[in-house]
Each structure stands twice: as C-alpha cells, then as structure tokens.
Design a protein that fits this description.
Blueprint lengths: L3 H10 L5 H12 L13 H10 L5 E8 L5 E8 L4 E8 L5 E4 L3 E4 L12 E5 L2 H19 L5 E4 L9 H12 L11 E5 L3 H7 L7 E5 L5 H7 L8 H15 L3 E7 L7 H11 L4 E7 L12 H12 L5 E3 L17 H4 L1
Parallel strand pairs: 4-7, 7-8, 8-9, 9-10, 10-11, 11-12
Antiparallel strand pairs: 1-2, 2-3, 3-4, 5-6
C-alpha cells in the first residue's frame, strides 16, 4: 500500500477529494479489505484509479507454509521486479502476534552462521515493500483468527540500518493511527552493529526498541563470525550504545546466538558479563537454529550454564522461544531454500 502522502498526491493529480484517502486507509487497515471494488464508500472513479495506480499490495504470494502446531506462518513474496523475500508471522502463547519483516533482498553482511547471508545482497526494499509485509499478515490474521498484528521485529532478511530511511518510513506508516496503529514500543529494529544507524536512531522521536546482534564479547571471535565487526569494533559499538542510552533512556537488547564450542564457554560468558554489566540492557540468548552451514546448537544445559554466569554480573538474561524451525522460518533460516533451488 503506497504511503498516505503518495496517495494524497495521486488524488490531487486526478482531481479527487483528498478526504477519500482516509476512507481508503480505514477500509484497508481497519476493515481488512484488499479489493477496491468492494469498498462501497468509494465512487467508481476512485476505485478505477486506485486499482490501476495503487494496488493494495506491491507483491504477490508465491508460497505459504504453516508450522505443524500452526503458531508460525512463513510466506514467500515476489516483488514487482521478480526478486523474492520472506516474512514470518508468529503467534506466541502469551498473546503476542508478531511479524518478522525483511528490509533488504538478501543480505551482504555474510555472518558465517546465518543462512540468509549466503544469498548475497541484491537491493534495499522500499518503505511500501516493508510495510506491506505487516499489512499482509494483519489481514491474514483477521481472516483466519479474527486477530491483529501487535508487534513488529526487523529481524528478517537484511540489515535494517543499511536501509535506514525506508525502514523508518515504513515504521511511521505502521505506527500511524490511521493505518495499523502499532505502538512504537512494540516495534524492534535489530542491527548487527552498524554504528551510524544507531546514532541516527538515537535522534528519532519514536520510542522504538533497539536490538543489537552481539554474538561474542571478544573482538577477534566476533570478527571471525561477523565481518561487520571489523569496521565497527566492540569498543566503538559500546561507546555508541552508551550514547544511545544516555539520549533515549531506552533499554538495549543484546541478541546472542548460542553456537556450540564457539561462543558458549563459561569463560566467554564471564567476558560478556564484564563487558555489559551496569548497562541499561538485557541479553536474549538464541538457541541456534541449525541449517546446512555446519554450526550446532549449544544444547539446553550449556545455555542454562551460560545464562547463570551472565546473570551473576547483574545482567538480566532470557532464552528466546524459537518458533517455526520445522518450516525453516526461525532466526537465520530465511529466504535461502528458494534461492538454492
């Protein structure tokens, strides 16, 4: 769905009253209608104009799979230029209805444990292509479960901070009360540590959440599994995050994927605790979702030991509940199957 501004300009150009824009947004975002011909509030001329120049979705659905317990839906979208992206809907037991969105076609960061990185980078997504992923799942939920999307996480394909303007534009649309009206504090942007993006985010008025993929407190190890750590070193990253907290007073979430015999030792846990103790933060340990890349999951006992050590430094720690492994929809698994085929 094109932005409210673009839709207003379209109506002005074709000499239609701009108050119709709000009617269109209400029909799409509040009533869940995706067919202009069924919007009885609109005159025929507006329906024809919108059908020709402003399709509700800027992509088509290629394939959709639902997990065996129906808590996760993964959808493969085909963009207008033929490129493919994936989005994931997660229905948590605590009532959250979260969408994990992609911000780029592929990813150029090449983290060694992430299957998405093997695709390479093709291009950034537009704000419309990003927001439409959420709109699609919101309408899906209305249709099948009479529910709404209430959380959005930018942890799909791509590095959001390398597509900053489009990501923020999409967030403003999702937060707009006339659109989905998703609370800013229910929107999380995850970065692998792109410092310029973190600095920009600290100046935003929207109180969205920041998650940082750390994955190692040791510079050499982090560089070996995350090439982005070479220009954005841990000391520089910690300095930027300190400034971010000072400006925003928001808590940082450190994402930490647990890789067996690589970054999960007790010594590494102590190093992590020392690095971030005293910060306004928490650590989210992510059991590794195994792919063809050769890495292994640390296992529950080792993850629990790691958690206890980090907690001993006064740092809150949680272990992520992973959904969608059976349909390759979990963290680090997106959009590779179709590309490899």
């Amino acid at each position: 769905m094109i932005s409210k501004h673009s839709l207003t300009e379209l109506f002005k150009t074709h000499h239609l009253p701009v108050y119709r824009v709000k009617q269109v947004f209400h029909a799409i975002y509040k009533e869940g209608e995706s067919d202009y011909s069924k919007m009885s509030v609109l005159p025929a001329a507006a329906k024809i104009l919108l059908t020709e120049h402003a399709p509700v979705f800027c992509f088509s659905v290629v394939r959709e799979v639902v997990s065996s317990n129906t808590d996760t839906v993964k959808t493969l979208f085909k963009l207008k230029d033929g490129k493919l992206i994936e989005g994931v809907l997660m229905r948590f037991r605590d009532g959250r209805r979260s969408v994990c969105v992609s911000s780029q076609v592929g990813c150029g960061l090449k983290c060694s444990f992430c299957a998405t990185g093997t695709m390479g980078f093709f291009r950034n997504l537009t704000d419309e292509e990003i927001a439409d992923q959420v709109l699609y799942f919101d309408q899906w939920l209305k249709k099948f479960h009479h529910e709404r999307v209430d959380h959005v996480i930018f942890m799909g394909m791509g590095e959001p901070m390398l597509n900053y303007e489009s990501v923020m534009s999409a967030i403003r649309t999702l937060n707009d009360p006339d659109a989905l009206g998703i609370a800013a504090r229910h929107i999380t942007v995850s970065t692998s540590g792109v410092i310029p993006g973190i600095v920009k985010l600290s100046d935003e008025e929207l109180q969205i959440n920041l998650a940082v993929s750390l994955h190692s407190p040791d510079q050499a190890l982090r560089e070996s599994i995350m090439p982005i750590a070479k220009p954005y070193t841990i000391p520089k990253l910690m300095e930027a995050l300190h400034d971010y907290v000072e400006k925003t007073h928001r808590r940082i979430s450190y994402e930490y994927v647990m890789l067996k015999n690589i970054n999960d030792s007790p010594q590494t846990a102590r190093q992590l605790g020392k690095l971030i103790r005293g910060q306004r933060c928490h650590v989210n340990l992510i059991p590794y979702n195994e792919t063809y890349l050769g890495f292994s999951n640390s296992g529950k006992s080792r993850i629990d030991e790691f958690r206890e050590i980090v907690e001993s430094y006064g740092v809150p720690v949680t272990v992520r509940v992973s959904l969608g492994q059976d349909i390759s929809a979990a963290c680090g698994q997106l959009a590779v199957e179709e590309k490899r085929k």
